[in-house]
Amino acid sequence: MANKVWVYVDQFKGQALPASWEVVYAGRKLADQMGAGLTALAIGSGLDELARTAIEYGADQVLLADDPSLADYRANAYAAALAQAVGEDVPDVFLFPTSTRGREIAGMAAIDLNTGVLVDVTEMKLDGDKLTAVRPVYAGKLLTEVVCDAKPQLVTLRARAFDKPVADAGRSGEVTKVPAAMAEDDVKVKVTGYQEAEGGVSLTDASVIVSGGRGTSNNSMEPPVEITDESEVEIWKAQQGFKLVGELASVLGAAVGASRAAVDAGYIPYSHQVGQTGKVVSPDLYIAAGISGAIQHLAGMRSSKVIVAINKDPDAPIFKYARFGVVGDLYQILPPLTEAMKERLGK
Ligand code: FAD
């Protein structure tokens, strides 16, 4: 009998996203509750090692659409491979990570499989084979329960909202190769190359994030004489603040985040933006320096386990959500905090 629970393993160049393993592990638990088997589907090229790891995290069967034409993620080719792999025998539940690719391919799969998709889910409850998913709405102010009346019930899981996956090297499972569904000539998008983003820890996977906001530009430092343009002066000033943010992040092994105000003003690239129109994160520790706590920023980080806010203004809204608040100038607070952390962590 076909497995009732499927999971999608999102990968890049054969390396699964850590969030994919959380999804496999969550899928395993769901399959156990349903007394069912778990199928993991991965699409790409050179996926043998990934298949082995998927079994260790809980898959009974791994389907690999493993083909050189699938080496690069291209939504149409991947969605076609997915629909073909599912075929007629649709699972009850199909889980995806809420990554950029995961969201996209789940949306396309919902169209191909004539079903719905429940996005960015933080909890799942099972009644028979019917799933009730919990997801934050209105910038995390409310939790809503949603169901999907068609099958498969497609669900994307928020990274770090479910149990940390535990691998069992002793598990065994079956690996089956499935063909690509589109001929190369029919795939209209060609990937011409990749450019590495600035190094550092991925925001979505980070267990600690240190973020900076517009407050980083608020200091009385004098820029080098050649910087005279007002907006360049502001950016230069903010960069001094982001250096402090980066130093603390580096000591803590953390990712660097930012508010939209900081991104829009050109202090730091968009890839660092946390919030409604940036990344949604759930780290164990979120340190916000010079960020007011606008609703759109909170939408991206309020599910963090511990929030620490550093802000000059005692009435800044962020303090309402912070477990620990420091009222003060980030330029005064961050350097000694970094030193103290270095000492504490023996770095
Ligand atoms: P501000 O609100 O200007 O706050 C700066 C803070 O720094 C102040 O509280 C100030 O007291 C403090 N400060 C100043 N100097 C210092 C200092 N030296 N030391 C310590 N503290 C200091 N925002 C996001 O962040 N992410 C999003 O994804 C996002 N999406 C949006 C989508 C829409 C549709 C809209 C309309 C807005 C969105 N915004 C988003 C923008 C959001 O509304 C706020 O404008 C933004 O979050 C403010 O950023 P900030 O807190 O850095 O700046």
Give an overview in words:
The protein is of the alpha/beta class. It contains 8 helices and 17 strands. It has helices at residues 18-34, 48-56, 75-86, 100-112, 230-252, 260-264, 295-301, 330-345, and strands at residues 5-9, 11-12, 15-16, 38-44, 61-66, 93-97, 117-121, 123-127, 130-137, 142-146, 153-157, 174-177, 208-212, 255-258, 285-289, 306-311, 324-327. α2 (48-56) links the parallel β4 (38-44) and β5. α3 (75-86) crosses α4 and α5 (230-252) packs parallel to α8 (330-345). It is elongated, with a radius of gyration of 22 Å. The model has no long low-confidence stretch (mean pLDDT 95).
In short:
The chain has helices at residues 18-34, 48-56, 75-86, 100-112, 230-252, 260-264, 295-301, 330-345; strands spanning 5-9, 11-12, 15-16, 38-44, 61-66, 93-97, 117-121, 123-127, 130-137, 142-146, 153-157, 174-177, 208-212, 255-258, 285-289, 306-311, 324-327.
What is the makeup of the main sheet?
7 strands, parallel
The total strand number stands at: 17
What is the N-to-C order of secondary-structure elements (H for helix, E for strand)? EEEHEHEHEHEEEEEEEHEHEHEEH
Helical content class: 25-40%
User: What form results from the Cα inertia axes?
Assistant: elongated
Cα separation of the termini = 54 Å
